[in-house]
Every structure is written in C-alpha cells, then in structure tokens.
Write a structure and sequence with these properties.
Layout (H helix, E strand, L loop, with lengths): L9 H11 L6 E6 L5 E6 L2 E6 L2 E5 L12 H9 L1 E5 L6 H7 L9 H5 L3 E2 L8 E2 L4 E12 L8 E12 L12 H4 L1 E4 L5 E4 L23 H4 L6 H8 L19 H10 L3 H10 L3
Antiparallel strand pairs: 1-2, 1-5, 3-4, 4-9, 5-8, 6-7, 8-9, 10-11
Length: about 280
C-alpha cells in the first residue's frame, strides 16, 4: 500500500502517522494562564533537540475535527512558561485522564488527582508524582499551518531539571528500569520502557567498524545469522585472529552456536566460532 497525504482524509493519515512513528515520549505539560488558572495536558509530539542550550520541543497540534487550538498552546503564548513532566507507568492512567477536554479554568490536577507543587523559576506547577520535571521558558512558538492537524512547535529552553532520587542508580545516572517510562503508540496503545522491553546496543566504536561488506563471505551470506547479528560482528574494528587454543563444539551447528553467543552480546566468542568453522 502506498499513497500521498493528499489522497487521504487528514484523520486517517493522522492514524497512520501515529501508528508508524512510535513509540513517542510523552510531554506532560503544565501551564498557567494569565489569570493564574493551572492546566495540565499530555502531548506525544515531543522530544529533546539539544543539550547546550538544553532544548525541548513539543507540539499541541490543531484539532483535526474542528481546527481549534488547545489551552496549553494559548497559555504558552500568553505566559512563555511551561513545566514538562515525564510520565512513568505509575501515573499513566492519571495522565490519560488529564487529556480529557475539560472547559477552560478547570484544573486537570484536581480531575486527575495529581499533586501540584511549586516550581522554583517559573509560575506553572510541577507534578509531584512525575519522576523528572523540567522547568522551561518558551523561546518560540512556530506555527506549521492553519488547517486541522497542523502543528505548533513550542520550543522550550530548560531552566531547571528535577530528578527523583529513587530513579537513580549507584552512579547517579537514571536507571531505565527504575524510572519505568511509558511511551505513546498508535490508537489506544502505549508501551512500557522497562523490564524485558529494554535492551542494550553497543555504541559504534570511535574507530570505524569494518562494516558488513568486509565480513567473510560465508558469514555475510549465513542463512541463520540475521542483519542484527551481522551488525554486531561488523562493529568490530578488525577481524580478529583465530585463537589456536579455541575448541569448537562439534556437537552444535557453528552458526547456531555463534547466534547464541551474539544473542548474549558475546561478540568475541561468536567470532572464534565463526573463524573455526569450515566455510
């Protein structure tokens, strides 16, 4: 199936976009209007775009059904301040509840049962239950269109970051299993970024990996090793020498054995198995 955006109703194309571009982190935005009324609403058009200065961008899109804008956007334009609270599994249902379109002036903090706590540098409240909160000033609001579905990029600079100590490991780094973040998928679906859903991929070497094209032919054209397995091998800076002391287990298919090692991220042992097998 293929199509251009103009061939579909905006609402249908919107569904395809959100189903394909996922998971998306959630910006749980706390704002305040010019009269002091708090607002709290989640947005999944969101990410980080720099660290010096630290820049976060989220987009309260114009409503597809009636082309109206959201209170969060109005407040950011009025006050130029926002607190972005991260969402973990412990508050995902309350976060979802806060997305109900309550009338202007109604506090989503009260409706969702979440606790507002004072910020230090901006007027909007932080969400006490959120594991990480960013106090931000709004640098710019960039309108991408005027029709329903158009984005409004709210470009924010982080003034202060609050991290709950409970989500840190012994090295004072954020532990993905402790912070237990959730992300938005398409439709009613979310995903939970902890437990077996979290895995490691070794960062490419500072020295260039040899690349899949440089792998020996019998490895490159394996019917057992996947592209992910080949990518692990190809991230090596060179093809290692065969260890003369290595004893190949002849009771197992060498490629299956190498696959087992690679699945355990033991690239060195996988190399030795593959180097000792007969092409």
């Amino acid at each position: 199936m293929k199509f251009t955006p103009s061939e579909l109703k905006t609402s249908l194309f919107h569904q395809y976009l959100l189903g394909a571009i996922a998971p998306r982190p959630i910006c749980f935005a706390s704002t305040i209007d010019s009269e002091g009324h708090p607002n709290l609403s989640p947005f999944s058009f969101f990410n980080v775009f720099g660290s010096k200065p630290p820049i976060l961008i989220f987009s309260p899109a114009r409503r597809v059904r009636d082309n109206t804008i959201k209170h969060t956007l109005e407040n950011c334009i009025e006050t130029k301040e926002v607190v972005i609270n991260m969402v973990n599994y412990a508050i995902v249902q309350q976060m979802s509840l806060s997305s109900c379109e309550y009338p202007k002036g109604v506090s989503e903090f009260e409706k969702s049962g979440l606790t507002p706590i004072a910020s230090e540098l901006v007027k909007p409240f932080r969400v006490k239950e959120s594991p990480v909160q960013f106090e931000c000033k709004v640098l710019e609001v960039k309108e991408t269109g005027t029709e329903g579905g158009a984005g409004n990029l709210i470009i924010c600079e982080v003034l202060m970051m609050h991290i709950n100590d409970d989500v840190l490991n012994e090295h004072q780094q954020i532990d993905p299993h402790k912070i237990d973040l959730v992300a938005r998928m398409g439709g009613d679906y979310y995903c939970r970024a902890s437990g077996n859903a979290v895995f490691e991929v070794a960062k490419p070497n500072m020295n260039l990996g040899i690349g899949i094209d440089a792998l020996p032919e019998h490895i490159k054209h394996s019917h057992i090793l996947t592209g992910n397995h080949l990518g692990q091998l190809a991230n090596s800076t060179s093809i290692p020498d065969a260890d003369k002391q290595f004893m190949l287990d002849t009771t197992k298919n060498p490629e299956e054995l190498a696959k087992e090692y690679l699945d355990k991220h033991d690239v060195d042992q996988a190399w030795q198995v593959l180097l000792h097998m007969k092409p």
